[in-house]
Design brief:
Blueprint lengths: L3 E4 L5 H11 L5 E4 L1 H7 L3 H9 L3 E7 L3 H13 L4 E5 L4 H8 L3 E5 L7 H4 L4 H11 L3 E3 L5 H10 L5 E7 L6 H7 L3 E4 L1 H4 L4 H17 L1
Parallel strand pairs: 1-2, 1-8, 2-3, 3-4, 4-5, 5-6, 6-7, 7-8
Length: about 210
């Protein structure tokens, strides 16, 4: 089974479907974010599932009061999303509102530099929240494998770690996996490539060979 999640951060529906078709053999799941939803509409979820037969992660980083979170989650799951990413800093009640609707992934730390300012200082509390609520997974930064290792040590083993930041942001797939990640999230290195399928294949082979060695 692949450990690659494609972050399909494009606007155009046909482009998204084309890239998804070309790369599906090397993916575990596809992650969609607001650019694709705003550019193509929520119906893109079912079209992607029909074309690829892969799980779809709604990277909406839901971060509102419980009722609003619940409404967003309900509509997203009805559209065919399999997992939703939610911010943990909004508190237990808001996260639980999403979890009541379906499978949830909690952000405990992000991959960009600014995450060090406000999110990283409360990572321990977010890990504790995840351990209490037992979501499907958490988000941790592939750009900082030492943080992935730290989070893995404190996180319940049943909870998956998904790591964005591989490729364009500087994160290395094998480093993230060896630090404890279960899945790596890759966007621009694949969808901006002249040959997305070949790029996905190269990363997949690197992971396969690296894990075996």
């Amino acid at each position: 089974m692949s450990r690659i999640i494609l972050a399909l951060d494009v606007y155009e529906k046909e482009k998204a479907l084309k890239i998804a078709r070309e790369t599906r053999d090397y993916l575990w799941a596809i992650k969609i974010n607001w650019p694709l939803i705003l550019g193509s509409g929520l119906g893109i979820v079912k079209e992607l599932k029909k074309e690829t037969k892969l799980p779809i992660i709604g990277d909406f980083k839901v971060a509102d009061i419980p009722n609003t979170n619940r409404l967003i989650a309900k509509k997203a799951f009805e559209a065919g999303v399999d997992y939703i990413i939610v911010h943990g800093f909004v508190g237990r009640d808001s996260v639980e509102a999403v979890m009541e609707e379906g499978k949830t992934i909690i952000v405990v730390e992000m991959s960009h530099e600014g995450a060090k300012q406000f999110i990283q200082p409360i990572t321990d509390e977010l890990i504790e929240l995840a351990n209490e609520l037992n979501p499907f997974g958490v988000i941790a930064p592939a750009t900082r494998p030492e943080r992935v290792r730290y989070i893995r040590k404190k996180l319940d083993r049943s909870i998956k770690i998904l790591t964005p930041g591989v490729g364009a942001q500087g994160g290395k797939a094998l480093e993230a996996l060896k630090a404890g990640a279960d899945y790596i999230i890759i966007g621009r290195s694949i969808y901006k490539s002249d040959n997305p399928r070949e790029s996905a294949k190269i990363i997949w082979e690197e992971i396969e060979n690296g894990v075996k060695s």
